[in-house]
TrEMBL record:
Protein name: Alkaline phosphatase family protein
Organism name: Haloferax namakaokahaiae
Taxonomic lineage from the root: Archaea, Methanobacteriati, Methanobacteriota, Stenosarchaea group, Halobacteria
UniProt-listed InterPro entries: Alkaline_phosphatase_core_sf, Phosphodiest/P_Trfase
UniProt-recorded Gene Ontology molecular function terms: hydrolase activity
Domain of life the protein comes from: Archaea
Length: 414
């Protein structure tokens, strides 16, 4: 199987203007398994071999994940970001789809577990867990009022095991350069509000991984471009400045990686650049608590009577409705919105979130799932700021769903 072009993957996965995940082959969910395979660890499904063909005798893999930097953002930044052009010239850029939903909470749980949303059950930024009668934000595992959910622990957010146990059992040393620690790895933390702290944290990982006796994996996560896009949009000057700053710091990280790598080892170090999803700028977003929808009285409630508004996100709305209202709401939303509206049975039948749903996923997914073509759809009576976001993600727009998986050996980049 050859590496697809972005246009051919887009055409293959597109249905009525909505782009669905390529779970069986060219999907973000297969990156952990691919990294593991290169280093001799079996951690899950892999990308087709064409994605890494020619990368032999790899002893270290370094993955930079730039949150929200999809293929559309790559194309927009190519002219002012030399590193992107270098990957295109000296390496390979493989287009992939994100998972559904194209949200960080869902995608990163997949990245760290190797399983799809249909198994781990983190259906979006917001999760309703009927088993404990709680609605909470998966990141950072808090209710909307800032308190911690009761009746469940942090480990209960996702129904999944970490891939890092498999890496460890295979003798692969894993380092993570992130704003927060991740269990089972060697942490190197930096301040996400100050990108200038990133190169020093990365240099620690570069030096320690270079001194390791066996294969190593270094993962670096940069969320800054996604954060600025929500408030300013992907066409803003602020977004461009953040992209420039992000890649300047990645360049510094690559310099330090080269400094701590001998000539021979540079050819055995594979550098990857990817994203969890892309972004789209939205317009006049839609308030489900206002006419003609007035959905709040039709929602199920927590035991104490609070309507269950928060499940999924504005681009991936999971509605938990009173049984007698499900079909009427389906008809209203289908007629009033330029959106895909899926009943729960349709979600399961088409494997939108992935195959083989776990009990955790089945109880968390909404009675209806609403995916607008290009706008945000949410409850402004409780979260008006969410409808004010400029750039969003979570849905099935091609610019949300198509992402890069760029690869090159360190010696070709430095």
């Amino acid at each position: 199987m050859q590496v697809p072009s972005a246009s051919s993957l887009r055409e293959r996965q597109l249905e009525g203007g909505f782009l669905f995940p390529a779970y069986d082959d060219w999907c973000f969910s297969r990156i952990p398994g691919t990294v593991g395979s290169l280093l001799g660890a079996d951690v899950g499904p892999e990308l087709p071999t064409a994605a890494t063909e020619g990368y032999d005798d790899v002893e270290r893999v370094v993955v930079f994940l730039v949150d929200g930097f999809g293929l559309a953002q790559w194309d927009g930044a190519r002219s002012y970001t030399p590193l992107l052009r270098q990957f295109e010239h000296d390496g390979r850029v493989t287009p992939l789809t994100s998972v559904y939903p194209s949200e960080t909470a869902a995608a990163m749980n997949t990245f760290h577990s190797g399983v799809l949303t249909s198994e781990h059950g983190v259906i979006g930024w917001n999760v309703y867990e009927p088993a404990v009668d709680e609605q909470f934000e998966a990141l950072p595992f808090l209710r909307k009022d800032g308190t911690k959910p009761e009746g469940m622990a942090y480990e209960d957010i996702a129904n999944a095991e970490s891939v890092y146990r498999d890496f460890d059992e295979a003798g692969v040393e894993v380092h993570q350069v992130t704003p927060f620690p991740n269990g089972g790895t060697v942490p190197h933390e930096y301040d996400p509000e100050d990108l200038s702290t990133f190169p020093d944290a990365f240099e620690e990982a570069a030096e320690e991984s270079s001194d390791a006796d066996g294969p190593t994996y270094v993962f670096a996560y940069l969320p800054q471009t996604d954060a600025i896009a929500h408030g300013e949009g992907v066409d803003s000057e602020e977004y461009r400045k953040t992209v420039e700053e992000t890649f300047e710091n990645i360049e510094c990280a690559l310099d330090s990686l080269a400094e701590h790598t001998t000539g021979e080892d540079a050819g055995e170090t594979l550098v990857c650049l990817t994203a969890d999803h892309g972004l789209i700028d939205t317009g006049h977003n839609i308030d489900l608590s206002e006419p003609p929808f007035d959905l709040v009285p039709k929602l199920k409630t927590l035991t104490e009577g609070t309507p269950i508004r928060f499940s999924g996100s504005p681009r991936n709305v999971n509605l938990h409705l009173q049984d007698e209202h499900v079909e009427a709401v389906y008809e209203t939303l289908s007629s009033e919105l330029d959106a895909k509206v899926f009943r729960k049975r349709e979600v399961l039948g088409m494997e939108l979130f992935g195959p083989d749903p776990s009990p955790t996923f089945e109880r968390r997914v909404g009675d209806l799932v609403v995916v607008h073509r290009e706008l945000g759809v949410w409850f402004g009576d409780e979260e008006p700021h969410a409808l004010e976001f400029v750039a969003m993600h979570g849905g099935l727009h091609p610019d949300e769903m198509l992402i890069p998986f760029a690869t090159a050996t360190l010696d070709s980049l430095r």
